[in-house]
Design brief:
With 236 residues, this protein is mainly α. The chain has 13 helices and no strands. The chain has one domain. It is globular.
Length: 236
């Protein structure tokens, strides 16, 4: 059975190593080496393959494809993906209201304001984060040979169902994916956090990815001003 919390924990583990790789490269925007090293680890390192056969690594590869995602890697390494996304969405929300955030307490303040932080407290939301990141990363319709090996490995090692394999492979019909993501967004703050996850994972946008983000915003009930603010917040 696919456990989103384990995948998110694997993502945090992968992010810890990627953060060190990026730091050693001398510039956060030069993450090509970090991404390449991660791909090699997913192929050869038993520890990296231990949880859902490195499914968290698939999510991290999506993040490394965007500037905003690379900037978030350090936060994910420290607090986890859901907490980092919640803090990011909270900061964007505060900026829209002309308020400043305290960077030292931002995660705690985000949680107090209703942004999901702990994946263990809401497994459905944790699964929605994984689903959103994968859907955005695969919105261009491309799954390379290495990604396919990781997906196949996840099926074999984690004993996941065919439906779960299809989710990892981005094979679930888009309309169904959007419905399932939207169902986990219980509040506008949930919705903004999921949209931020999609923007971060989509990387440099082409027409198909832009179209997916538009449909996702509609499904989540986010208006143009909110999505513009989130995209700007993610890019910083």
């Amino acid at each position: 059975m696919l456990d989103a919390r384990k995948i998110l924990a694997d993502l945090q583990h992968q992010a810890e190593r990627a953060a060190r790789d990026i730091e050693e490269s001398g510039a956060i925007d030069k993450a090509t080496k970090a991404a390449g090293d991660l791909r090699e680890r997913l192929k050869t390192d038993p520890q990296a393959q231990a949880v859902a056969a490195g499914a968290g690594g698939l999510l991290l590869l999506g993040l490394l494809g965007s500037r905003g995602g690379r900037r978030l890697v350090g936060d994910i390494a420290q607090t986890g993906a859901v907490a980092a996304l919640g803090a990011l969405a909270y900061k964007t929300w505060m900026d829209r209201h002309g308020k400043r955030v305290d960077e030292k307490t931002i995660v705690r303040d985000a949680e107090a304001s209703g942004f999901p932080i702990d994946p263990a407290s809401d497994p459905d939301f944790a699964l929605a984060v994984v689903r959103t990141m994968l859907a955005a990363a695969y919105a261009d319709g491309v799954i390379d040979a290495h990604e396919q090996r990781v997906i196949d490995g996840a099926k074999a090692k984690a004993q996941i169902t065919e439906d779960e394999r299809r989710m990892l492979a981005g094979e679930v019909p888009e309309a169904e994916t959007l419905r399932l993501i939207a169902a986990a967004a219980k509040t506008p703050h949930h919705a903004s956090e999921l949209y931020a996850a999609a923007v971060l994972s989509a990387g440099e946008l082409n027409d198909r990815e832009s179209d997916f983000l538009r449909k996702l915003a509609d499904a989540l009930g986010l208006d143009a001003d909110e999505t513009k603010a989130l995209r700007h917040g993610v890019a910083i």
